[in-house]
Amino acid sequence: MSKVIISTLYDSDVFRMACRQFDQAADAINLPEAIRDRTKYPRRCLAVALPVERDDGSVTVFEGYRVQHNLSTGPSKGGIRFHQHVTLGEVAALSMWMSWKCSLVGLPYGGAKGGVIVDPHQLSERELEHLSRRYMQEMINFVGPHTDVPAPDVGTNEKIMGWMMDTYSNHAGHLETAVVTGKPIALGGSQGRREATGAGVAYLVKQYLADLKIPIKKATVAIQGFGNVGSETALALANYGAKIIAISDYTGAFHNPKGIDVQRALKYVQYQRVLKDFDGGEPITNEQLLELKCTVLVPAALERVITEKNAPKLRCRVLAEAANGPTTNAADKILNQRDEIEVIPDVLCNSGGVIVSYFEWLQNLQNFYWSRDEVMTKLYAVLDKAKTSVDYQKRKFKFSRRLAALTLGVQRVADAKAARGLFP
To answer: Binding residues for NAD(+), per the UniProt record (predicted)?
Structure first.
């Protein structure tokens, strides 16, 4: 067992959860003690104060973070989250998961993550732009096309990435499209990037249902979270023929056993911004949604929503983790004993976003752009290869699918660190 070192800087429930996952993977592959802590803990972090002039003339100082977990396998990569409950520990955990995810699917990146403690819904467009630009201004010495490449996450989008790219470019003195991904198409964004995470989740669900010999047109799906990832997952699965029976966001959940009209829900959110008062289904709670009887359950919101309390009550055949870290360690132990539930772990399930971010970065560096069909074909090929390697690891060592995915990701990062040696 690895000696226990708890970093007081990052200490939080979610960071301890990520560390326990790492420890389990490191023990499973007998990772040498000399390389464990180097592989486990973040390389560096930055905390910044972000003063923003509000529309009424007052000034609010927001707090922001960037954690770069691993720089041994390439520039670090990861989203920027704008959310009122962001903590440094959460950002550190997310950066760790990004390292394993990039490694698992074979991308030349390390993991990173960023966050600002703010409810973006409480800001005007002007205030949001000022906050986004201020965040990038504070990060300029720590990010770059070959250092750290941010992307959108919860509470951010392609417009915000465009503002951040422009801020960096003005500092550099020339257009630098490769500094962020998830940008608008007009600013060097990639075809397919907006829907990439959700499309990847839906593709893997389709593949695993086929393995289980369950026709996708007979599958029912409940999705917790109707942001970018959840809504694109719903749309892609509906296009495959699955029936979406429940959707939700932070304002409430809606259940319709006859099927929810996803296009109608998308239009509703486009104008109302949230699902509150949506009349396409019966109102239920987010907790009730997780326990609905369905073929596929997709947690696509925040981390730690599948707990030891509700894990025994899940009534799905496939749990597709579209969010990062949605299942606690205690819940995972319960699910491992429930052979009737197949888990597609987050580091595999939601990797479509970073895969197409990688494609966008490549296109920016080359100034050569691909069609949507090319992007999606390449995405599915990478996902198929990762799925095959995870399932082989699972069978070979009789691991859970999560442990199989984590051991592959951790081993590749550790191998890179060992090969590079320890700088004196």
So the answer is: 197, 228
Residue 189 tokens, joined: 């964004």
**128 vs 32: CA distance, rounded Å:** 46
**CB count in 10 Å sphere of residue 121:** 12
Structure tokens at 83: 């959310």
How high is the pLDDT of residue 2?
Answer: 42
How is 111-160 classified by DSSP, letter by letter?
EEEEEEE--GGGS-HHHHHHHHHHHHHHHTTT-BTTTEEEEE-TT--HHH
How buried is 345 (Cβ within 10 angstroms: 0-12 exposed, 13-18 middle, 19+ buried)? Answer: buried
Tokens of 159: 């417009």
| CA separation for the pair 268, 278 (Å, rounded) | 7
To the question of whether residue 228 is assigned a binding role by annotation, the answer is yes
Topology annotation, domain 196-349:
Rossmann fold (3.40.50)
Q: Which helix (H) or strand (E) holds 99?
A: helix 88-104
The residues that are catalytic are 113
182-202: pLDDT as tens digits: 999 999 999 999 999 999 999
What was the pLDDT predicted at 8? Answer: 83
| Mean pLDDT, rounded, for 341-367 | 98
Task: State how far the Cα of 336 lies from the Cα of 341, in Å rounded to an integer.
Answer: 8
For the CA atoms of 255, 309, 320, 232, what is the dihedral angle to 10 degrees? 40
Residue 5 — very low, low, confident or very high, per pLDDT cuts 50/70/90? low
Tens digits of residue pLDDT in 200-247: 999 999 999 999 999 999 999 999 999 999 999 999 999 999 999 999
Q: How many CB atoms lie within 10 A of CB 146?
A: 10
Q: How far apart are CA 19 and CA 26, in angstroms?
A: 10
Total count of residues recorded for the chain: 424
Higher-scoring residue by pLDDT: 423, 114: 114
Domain ranges of the chain: 40-176, 196-349
Instruction: Report the pLDDT value the prediction gives residue 7, as an integer from 0 to 100.
Output: 67
- The identity of residue 38, as a single letter, is R
Residue 85: CB partners within 8 Å, gap ≥ 6? 117
Cα 108 from Cα 234, distance rounded (Å): 30
Does 95 count as an annotated binding residue?
no
CA–CA dist 282, 279 (Å, integer): 7
- Model confidence over 21-48: pLDDT tens digits? 999 999 999 999 999 999 999 999 999 9
Topology agreement, domain 40-176 and domain 196-349: yes
Is 77 annotated for ligand binding?
Answer: yes
- For range 302-314, the mean pLDDT: 95
40-176 sits in which CATH class? alpha beta
Tell me 3's DSSP state. P
